[in-house]
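re: that chain from earlier
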Amino acid sequence: MERVTDQALMLSAVDHGESDRVVTFLTRTHGRLAAFAAGARRSRKRFSGALEPFMLLSLGWTERRGGTARLETADIRRGFYPIREDLPRIARALYCMELLRELTRDGQPHPELFDAAVEWLDAQERGVAGPTSLIAFELGALEQVGLMPRFDACALCGREAGRVHFEPSHGGRICDACLPRAPAAIPVPAELLAQLTALQAGARTPLSPEARARARALLNLFVEHHLGRRLRSVDFMAQLGVD
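^ sequence. v structure.
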C-alpha cells in the first residue's frame, strides 16, 4: 500500500461502526479525499483532536485498492481557534467547508481553491474580513470549478439593456428580450448585480445587510440548482440570522 502525505482541510466526518469514522478532506494536491479513520471515536489520543471541521492538517494516509483510503496521521497545523469561539463565524466556516465538499471531486486537485480557503479562514481568525468576504470567496470557488454565474450581462444573449432577472439554470442574468426563454427567472436590482460583478472582479467593498441578504438568496438558488440539493449549513446560517 502506498503512503501519501499532503496538506488538508477537514471538511466533514461520518461515524462508522462503534469506534471509527469516515472523514472527508480537501487536500492541496490530491483533491477531495475520503479516508477511514480507524479508532477515531474510541481513543481521544488517536488523532489528538485533529478531526474537527476546518482544521488545517498535515495528513498521512495509505491508498487501498477499490476502497476508501486509510488515515494514518493527522497533525494540526492550524486550528483557527478564535473562529470556534464565535457562533456566526462558526456558521460561515461550516458553510465554506460544506461548499468545498460539494463543489470538488475525489482526486481532482484545486490548489488555488485550497489556498483561497486557508486565506479566508486566516482572515476570519484575525477578524479582518466581514460577512461580504464569504460571498466573495463563494464566487471565487464557483469560478475555480467552472460554475461562475454571470452577472455583468445576459447569460443568453450577452446584452446589458433593459430590466434584469436571474435564472440559475441559464447561468445567471437574463435580460427582458430573453425572458420568454427563461420564464422562471426572478427580477433583481441592477445595482445588486453590479456589486456582485465587482466582487467577481476582485473588489472588496462591503455590501449592505440588505444587499448581502439578496446576494445570499441568489447564490443559494444557484448552488442548489447545480448541486441538486440545498446545503444543510444554509439552514443553520438562517437560524442564526447570519448571511
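Strands lie at 3-16, 20-27, 31-37, 56-62, 69-78, 164-167, 172-175, 186-187.
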